[in-house]
Amino acid sequence: MAFIVVGDLAHGSAATLLRLARMRRTRTLKISRPPRTRTRVAIPLIAAALAVVPTSASLAPAASGPAPSNTTTITAAAGQDALATRVKTLVQNARRGDLKGAEIAVSIRACDEGGGPGREIVAIDADRPMLPASNMKVVASGAALHSLGPDFRFETRVERIPGGYVLIGDGDPSLGDPIFFDRLQYRDAEGERRQLDEEAILGFWADAIARNGDEGPIDILVDDSIFEPRHWNDGTDGRDGWNPEDRLNRFSAEVAGLNFHRNTLHFRPRTSGGAKPDWTDVRPRIDGLVEASRNDSKISADKQTAWIYRRPGTNELVFKGMVRRQRSGRPVVPLEVTVHDPPMIAVELLADRVRDRGVEIRRIGRREGGPREAGPVVGPVVRMPIEEIVEHCNEESQNLYAESLLKRTIHENTGRPGAWKDANATIRRIATARIGANAGDLLEGNYFDDGSGLSRRNRVTAGFLTAWLDSFHDDPRLGTIFIESLARGGEEGSLESRFQNWDGRSARVDAKSGYLTGVSCLSGFVTDDTGRRWAFSILCNGFKGSSRPAKRLQEAIVTAIADLAAP
Q: What would you report as the CA-atom Rg of the chain, rounded to the nearest whole angstrom?
């Protein structure tokens, strides 16, 4: 499958078709567990019809019923009872020790047992609403797959309009994201294979516009109306949303209907040729930006404290701190800063490249008004499969990707621009459709404010999270894509450094971690080598200091589940 698909380079160009190839990623396995298989074919899983134990504030042991009919059933029930006892002890010890005073909630479900959500075999404060941090991403990404479908592709295009051209966004968070550049190649008009970058993407559209040979000045506009004009979640009346102190950080970039280069600028400061660092190496290239900025930074022999300040509501920059003097052969590590109003940055970049090709520009701006009839497409249509977006969202915990998936889902469900104010109602409707009859009780106390988990208005219960995860376990259309999008313990993404020393256990962990100050969460699946699967959610809130004790507890509980999975 092409990682990104680009259509015809219109209007008589020598290179009529651009081809992009997905570069195969090499996974370095640090442990002896079976390597992860990426496939679009769902594996059918059989669920036994057992009653669901409702979420409660106490441990939920295996349900009583008729006497077991064979040794396997007795062993399974005994193992689940032992697991419940072991997890209860781990939580009690944590509450008496390093996590004293913290809130801890645990839910574990046997995915193969029960109609609807799998049977909850452990429930410790599982109905307590908690801050989920980045565990919200499994909700946002799952909701997107449910609403948009596994074959959905984000599409970004340029259309011809009277008097000019409009760049139309579809909410794709990956457009121009450097993380994908080393995996993408294309052939130019001379047949040379080249690596894709942000300049190539802009150049494709600029070339197509220039080839049209328009007489007189033209307009270059952007249409980002698929999402609301509010690009940053400042909460209700400016309260309880994202942390204002994070505005400059790449993990807190603005979210728009047209995103480009992950809505950040990358600077590579140089220390040769002057008394102060040279900041002119910026990507994407923006002529005049550095000259209009203030440079308060200095060169240091051994210190690296450089950072970039952006004035709120503007793209006015101040370069600050110390830049370590570069040595020969040492790569320059880029510094990132978020931009304000990403769609306008993107359309200004496109207009600048069009102007470089000798075309006179009359106006650069945002197209106003409601929906209108589509015009002729000019140049390539850039398409990104949802499978790749969901994987990068969950495996690498990318906030921009999670928010874009959520807002695109809201647009799909409401027909209106995707807006955070509609997040809670939209997710609740989707959860009800996926979980079924028990959804009402499981949704009690939950509130969904964003898709990334940055907002401190989010509240999610461990019991809901495991029921939500379990709804993908035996989903033949979405299950494999969703589960494979999660980080694999000990191997990749945000869990690469965790679960590495499992003493030969054959079970694997696919999960999403989450962290905010005082918050550490882990939710996902343990799957044994026979295909049996357990969904788990371990939420820790309100602790002081380091998150290490919370992580130790999470890893101990997940290891206990793996021991249950052992033959």
A: 26
Q: Measured between alpha carbons, how far is 242 from 454 in angstroms, rounded to an integer?
A: 6
Which tokens hold the place of 431? Answer: 């959860």
Cα separation, 478 vs 471, whole angstroms: 10
DSSP code per residue over 103-156: EEEEEEEETTBSSSSPEEEEEESTTS-B--GGGHHHHHHHHHHHHH-TT-EEEE
**What is the C-alpha to C-alpha distance for residues 402 and 134, in angstroms, rounded to an integer?**
9
Q: What is the pLDDT of residues 507-519, one digit of tens each?
A: 999 999 999 999 9
Q: Would you state the CATH architecture of domain 77-149+399-565?
A: 3-Layer(aba) Sandwich (3.40)
**Phi and psi of 534, rounded to 5°?**
-125, 135
Which residues pair with residue 159 across a beta bridge? Answer: 166, 377
Both tokens of residue 55? Answer: 């979420």
Query: Across the beta sheet with 282-283, what order do the strands follow?
Result: 282-283, 264-267, 335-338
User: Percent of the chain beyond pLDDT 70?
Assistant: 84
H-state helical runs in 178-260: 198-211
Cα distance between residue 406 and residue 257, in whole Å: 12
6 CB burial (10 A radius; 0-12, 13-18, 19+):
buried
Each residue's pLDDT tens digit, 7-63: 444 333 333 333 333 333 333 222 233 344 433 322 222 222 222 222 333 333 333
Among 303, 246, 315, which residue's Cα sits nearest to residue 277? 303
Pairing state between β 361-366 and 218-223: parallel
- Going from the C-alpha of 549 to that of each of 95, 105, 147, 424, the distances in angstroms are 10, 15, 37, 32
Q: Please give the residue that has the higher pLDDT: either 111 or 192.
A: 111
Q: Which residues contact 197 (CB under 8 A, 6 or more apart)?
A: 178, 181
156-172 residues labelled b (16+ CB within 10 A) or e (exposed): bbbbbbeebbbbbbbbb
Distances (CA, A) of 174 to 207, 258, 301, 390, 400: 22, 10, 37, 11, 9
The token pair that represents 222 in the structure block: 């952007």
CA dist., res. 364 & res. 366, Å (int): 7
Q: Whole-angstrom Cα distance, residue 305 to residue 320?
A: 8
User: In angstroms, how far is the first alpha carbon of the chain from the final one?
Assistant: 37
Helix %, strand %, coil % of the chain (to 5): 30, 20, 45
Is the bond preceding 549 in cis, omega lying within 30 degrees of 0? no
Residue boundaries of the structural domains of the chain: 77-149+399-565
Sequence-distant (6+) residues with CB within 8 A of 41 are 480
CA distance 336 to 299: 19
On whether the pTM is more than 0.85, the answer is yes
Chain mean position to CA 50: 34
